[in-house]
Design a protein that fits this description.
heterodimer; A: about 425 residues; alpha/beta; FAD/NAD(P)-binding domain; Enolase-like, domain 1; 3 domains; 11 helices; about 30% strand; globular; B: about 110 residues; alpha+beta; Ubiquitin-like (UB roll); five-stranded mixed β-sheet
Chain lengths: ~425, ~110
């Protein structure tokens, strides 16, 4: 092989990396594609790990996104359990752990993110689980079994999406759950106060305990495998299993070390291009500079898939910006939350439907324009929102307030 | 195993033996059948695994839930009476030999 034979190397075999590899193939790229995953599995779905996987409703085959035979058929050279230790931009190569070097003509970074850990070291710190990988989830599932056998509770540190999903799964399994949240309410940054309160009520009604303004003073591993968590106000909790869901850190170390521009994530434009030539990035490891100059970091399947596609096309010389309305979902108990758009900066909120029931949506407006919709068991509102937000016509606050107004009439044609 | 035939947007068809209890989406996606996106991985929240069920055998498939009906309102390709989300159809022995047609687009 000569240096110029087309060879695209993709670092990271999650949603974004897989999407990129398949996009290259479906767009007639016939050079080599190497997809490097640092986990021992072929690409798999992460969202079920906090839900159906924990409650044992899925088998490994169902967790997988593609069978390895499909990757082989598409001539995608997938390698599991491979770590990249450095990128050499001058030499156009990546250095693998173990010393091998892979020359590339195009490089895609889809390195994901790492859960933040509490600042407690040693055995006590290690006793606090986090959830990112299948192995993490398997350890948590074992811990939940242990909780059930020993009749000890699960303590969830952090009332965010992942923590609340794990809490709901544990309640489904009949395990006692306490959620410790540092803020005065659940999902403070994502939700309005009324929606935070609604979710708190949901968890309380399923028997979970919620503790707000929880400042952790100490964590101690007891000799019998339990964990004691002491709060600054003196309260203390004994857990059979403790899991922290306190956010993630984008995996941008490789890019940083190579001199690629990063700012709490690998900086990309709306096509996934980084500051380095022939290097693109996609998914949880990225932060996007929007046209107005603000930075946006999204952790979602949609972002991984759409950015993965745009970044792959960019490597082929086609600029097709990822501009779709962001969307996200969370399943807790029998409640399906779907969020379309970004509600940050909203100045007014309208509830459509009945918050005392189990189906409604909260419409977020900024300066009279609809910017986001949170739908609870209201898939129709969600699908409409994805079509309307970012379009030319925005519904008015009055229209959304009027139950007889049909939002579908505003759908972008 | 339940034999299901998937007709891809290109017109080519793939026969798969789907384990009982798997959704048709899972079988299609893991086996690389073209045209099903399934962005949400089967949570019934994204409407990107839209398919047309053989109209002759529509009655044999369990009817859609309220959620699914609402999502079907938002599918990109033409919605037909036999439109379904393939993540919500579980393989059962009764469906053996069923043909599923995948629309031109999902997003």
């Amino acid at each position: 092989m000569t240096q110029s034979d087309p060879h695209i190397v993709i670092v990271g075999a999650g949603q974004a990396g897989l999407q990129a590899a398949e996009t290259l193939r479906s767009n007639a790229f016939d050079g080599r594609i190497t997809l490097l995953g640092n986990e021992p599995h072929p690409p798999y779905h992460r969202p079920p790990l906090s839900k159906a996987w924990l409650t044992d409703e899925l088998n490994p085959g169902q967790l997988s996104i593609r069978d390895v035979s499909v990757l082989e058929r598409k001539n995608i050279d997938f390698r599991a359990g491979v770590r990249v230790s450095a990128i050499d931009i001058e030499d156009r190569s990546v250095l693998l752990h173990g010393g091998d070097r892979l020359a590339y003509t195009g490089l895609m970074l889809a390195t994901g993110a790492t859960p933040r850990r509490l600042p407690h070291n040693g055995a006590a710190g290690d006793a606090i689980r986090v959830l990112r990988s299948r192995e993490d989830a398997d350890r948590i599932a074992l811990g939940l079994k242990d909780c059930a056998e020993r009749e000890l509770p699960l303590i969830v540190i952090g009332g965010g999406f992942i923590g609340l999903e794990i809490a709901a799964s544990a309640r489904k399994l009949g395990i006692a759950v306490t959620v410790l949240e540092a803020a005065p309410r659940l999902l403070e940054r994502a939700f309005t106060r009324e929606l935070s309160d609604w979710y708190a009520q949901l968890h309380l009604s399923h028997g979970a305990h919620l503790v707000f303004d929880a400042r952790i003073a100490s964590i101690d591993a007891t000799s019998d495998g339990a964990t004691t968590i002491q709060l600054a106000d003196g309260r203390s909790f004994v857990a059979g299993l403790a899991v922290a869901g306190i956010g993630v850190r984008p995996n941008d170390e490789l890019a940083q070390a190579a001199g690629i521009a990063c700012d709490n994530g690998i900086l990309v434009d709306d096509c996934g291009c980084t500051s380095a030539p022939n290097i693109v990035a996609a998914g949880d490891c990225t932060v996007r500079r929007l046209s107005d100059g603000t930075l946006l970091r999204l952790e979602s399947v949609q972002n991984a898939v759409e950015q993965g596609r745009a970044a792959a096309l960019a490597l082929l010389g086609t600029r097709k910006p990822f501009v779709a309305t962001p969307w996200f979902w969370s399943d807790q108990y029998d409640i399906k939350l779907q969020i379309a758009g970004l509600s940050r900066g909203a100045d007014s909120h309208v509830v459509r439907g009945d918050m005392t029931g189990h189906s409604f949506s909260i419409f977020h407006f900024r300066a009279g324009r609809l910017i986001a919709v949170d739908s609870i068991n209201a898939a129709k509102d969600h699908m409409l929102a994805r079509q309307i937000i970012g379009g030319e016509v925005s519904p008015t606050v009055e229209q959304v307030n009027d139950p007889s107004f049909n939002l579908a009439t505003l759908r972008a044609k | 195993m339940v034999q299901i035939t998937f007709v891809e947007p290109s017109g080519s068809s793939t026969e798969l033996n789907v384990p009982e209890g798997w959704s048709l989406m899972q079988a299609a996606v893991t086996n690389g059948v073209d045209g099903i996106v399934a962005e949400c991985g089967g949570s019934c929240v994204c409407a990107t695994c839209h398919v047309y069920v053989d109209p002759e055998r529509l009655a044999e498939v369990l009817p859609p839930s309220e959620d699914e009906i609402e999502l079907l309102d938002g599918v990109k390709a033409e919605r037909r009476p036999n439109s379904r989300l393939s993540c919500q159809i579980k393989a059962t022995p009764e469906l053996a030999g069923l043909t599923i047609t995948i629309p031109e687009c999902q997003t």
